[in-house]
Amino acid sequence: MVLEVKNITKRFGGITALKNISFTIQQGEIYGLIGPNGAGKTTMFNCITNIVEPTEGEIFFNGEKITKLKPYKITEKGICRTYQNIRLFPQMTALQNVMVGGHSRISAGVFRSVIRTKSQKQEEKLLKEKSEELLELVGLGQLKDQFAENLAYGQQRRLEIARALASNPTLLLLDEPAAGMNETETDNLFDLIKKIQSMGITVLIIEHDMSLVMRLCDRITVLNFGEKLAEGTPDEIQNNEAVIEAYLGKEEEETIA
Amino acid sequence: MLIEQLINGITLGSIYAIVALGFTLVFGVLGIINMAHGEIFMVGAFIGVLTTSVLGWPLWLAFLASIVVTSLLGYLLEIFSLRPLRGKKGVSHLAPLISTIGVSIFLENLSHHMFGAGNKPFRTAFAEIRFEIGSITIYLVQITIFVISVILMVGLSVWLSKTKAGKALRATAENLETASILGVDTKKIITLTVIIASGMGGIAGILVGMAFNSVSPQMGLSMGLKGLAIIILGGMGNVKGAMVGGLILGLSETLLVAYGDSGYRDAIAFIMIILILLIRPQGIFGSKTAEGR
Amino acid sequence: MLGELLNPYYLQVLCFILINIMLALSIYVPLSSGQLSLGSAGFMGIGAYTSALLTIHYELPLYVTILVGALLAGVIGIIVGIPSLRLTGVYLAIATLGFGEVIRVLFVNWESLTKGSVGLTGIPQLGRELLKFAKSIGIEPSALGLKNNQFVYLSLVIVLLIIVLFILWFVIRQQNSRIGRAYSSIQMDEKAAESMGINITYYKVLAFAQGAFIAGLAGALFAHTIGYISPSDFSYHRAVEILIFTVFGGSEVIIGSVFGATILTLLPEVLRFVSDYRYIFYGIMLVILMAVRPQGILDLYLFYRLKGKRIKRGTS
């Protein structure tokens, strides 16, 4: 069990964004989190990475409680994420962006960074090589010296994934990675996520593109208005009465092939 | 006498409040700090000296002249140092800060040339009128200052909440883009805001000249810094906060000078804001978090 | 002949350029982590007074007192930096400006120690100490073809230059490393930086304290360069002047601080022919600069182009 979310509730003022949500993710899975807009999916991500603190409940990562940890500590433990509205470092090159992602995997402090000790040079070299590999993996090898702000939209999304991978996560959280992508790009993304899975990384994904979710995910949790509506394999979800009614109903024919 | 000190403190505080209102209006609408506001205030004070002492105009005309000149300065400030920066890509929040600092350096040194470095006396017969109630002496100027500041405060609040232009201004302060979609002429509103703020600075300038009988090119700086401190104390962009913050600062300075160590007078404002920023970063009346824009 | 080219006046201007470069860097470093600190004048004052008082009262060697002054400024930087984490943007700028004013008022009023607004005089000058030292080990300026006066200033310039080069070396190396990447990522998007495993509290306080240390060092060197200091040397005007060095030159790149401090220190000297009007021009120039080139004279794109990489400023 990589991640265990236990009875998480999050209230903002009088609004309950998440109500008593629990689910578990197994090692090596691709796990989907779906639901209509405003269902609380991104809030769930924010709770896992502790960008917002859950009002009630606990989250365990590899058996260790992470609910009260600072966000950077959680990244150090091996959870990294991307954002729904891309949050790259705009005036850094693609390569620099990815290298920032590797921050917690190298250790040089001020002294070693300035003196440039042998070990510091070695770790910088390794990080650079690894970052370039990751850029190749997401198909941005040619663009490594371009500023992030000058990349096309789909490229920025892939750069964010590369940046997150640089932190060596065991659990990768993807927030709507296919948003704004065309069919070819989405197919490439499918291959990329499968490749990430084959690297031994567990993936938790929020996505609106149902055909992608159903092809990709091993299991899925459906949220609706902050409550858990259903959990199961793609087949089970597609045949779940409540889900069809609340969420898939009107789109059923066009999106679920 | 405690009561006399309180009256002095309220007088001083009222002037601080008017200066702070100018800062708060511009910050509320544009989200920037107008570092030249103190110098516009100083110019207002000099116009007062020039018109009454040199030209021998009556006081009401001096007020009018001061308001006209400082409003014009506000207009020029908007045209030359604020408008060119607006909506441009790659403009950080540093740019308007530096640009208005440029205007303040320009105005301070220009006045230095025209009027000399020292203090200029500001004498009007009006400033000598006083009442004796028991053992307490109250100057008519002090009452005038208080009344004018209350009128400005109430007038501004009413104008902001009741009139169409005032509502447009608040909409612009809330969200510039939305306001402009809703048909508010934001360019006009912004210009109007800077003009009103500057005009109020002019009024404060002439009042200070009357209250303390002297003006100098350097007076803009210390007043400007205190105005900044007050809007942080009262909450950025908050009209009520500016009034209360001004009074708190005016009273504590006066009481410190009367009963404590006058040397630290100029530090009070900043010790206060450092404390308030640590305890309640949004200010006494502020509701937003202390996020920079 | 070397001796004739070394005009003490030019050398002194050079000293001020070098000190101002340090001051500009003291703003640049916290700014590179997204913190606009206007406290440099205050930290400069702490360094200057500490070192000056230690040499006057305890006759300690200058290299010790200067270092103590800088370290004290750095420690106070940590103390001020931690609560300041709650503030961003304009709020941080005003609070740090306030800190500087409080320090200045303290110098004015703590008369038993600081001699109040009159200030401290008779502070040992670094150049003269270097001359004494040179003579003590048997080097006579005349042997180098220099007058004593020239030797004093020349040795001072060399020492300051070495310190500036060291700071530049330090900051540039730091910038191209894990630490520098952490700083810029915090500057560009604090939340995203934290999600990437960066301890933003640590790095922001580190950058703030480094800025304070550099300002304190510059202040101590300033005191031992001119030999007398007073609270007005560390006022609002100084704080603004330092900020303008950095912003004028371009706050995105380190070379901008060097460039800005150099040009703006020279400018009043060059503008001597309009002597009395020079600050009026200065004000106008700032307004025009912000309207035309708000990012400063030098920026990141220019910097990369000079390095031969083809990067265009995007429209996004």
TrEMBL record, chain A:
Residues 3-250 form the ABC transporter domain. One of its GO terms (cellular component) is plasma membrane. GO terms for biological process: D-alanine transmembrane transport; L-alanine transport; L-isoleucine import across plasma membrane; L-valine import across plasma membrane. InterPro entries: AAA+_ATPase, ABC_AA/LPS_Transport, ABC_transporter-like_ATP-bd, ABC_transporter-like_CS, BCA_ABC_TP_C, P-loop_NTPase. GO terms for molecular function: ATP binding; ATP hydrolysis activity; L-isoleucine transmembrane transporter activity; L-phenylalanine transmembrane transporter activity; L-valine transmembrane transporter activity. Keywords: ATP-binding, Nucleotide-binding, Transport. This is Branched-chain amino acid transport system ATP-binding protein. The lineage of its organism: Bacteria, Bacillati, Bacillota, Bacilli, Bacillales.
From TrEMBL, chain B:
GO terms for cellular component: plasma membrane. The keyword tRNA processing does not apply. It is found in: Cell membrane. Keywords: Amino-acid transport, Cell inner membrane, Cell membrane, Membrane, Transmembrane, Transmembrane helix, Transport. PANTHER family: BRANCHED-CHAIN AMINO ACID TRANSPORT SYSTEM PERMEASE PROTEIN LIVH, HIGH-AFFINITY BRANCHED-CHAIN AMINO ACID TRANSPORT SYSTEM PERMEASE PROTEIN LIVH. Belongs to the binding-protein-dependent transport system permease family. LivHM subfamily. This is Branched-chain amino acid transport system permease protein. It comes from Ureibacillus thermosphaericus.
Automatic annotation (TrEMBL), chain C:
Pfam families: BPD_transp_2. InterPro entries: ABC_transp_permease, LivM-like. It is a multi-pass membrane protein. GO terms for cellular component: plasma membrane. GO terms for molecular function: branched-chain amino acid transmembrane transporter activity. Keywords: Cell membrane, Membrane, Transmembrane, Transmembrane helix. It is found in: Cell membrane. Its main location: membrane. The chain crosses the membrane at residues 6-29, 36-56, 62-82, 89-107, 151-172, 205-230, 242-267, 279-304. This is Branched-chain amino acid transport system permease protein. It comes from Ureibacillus thermosphaericus.
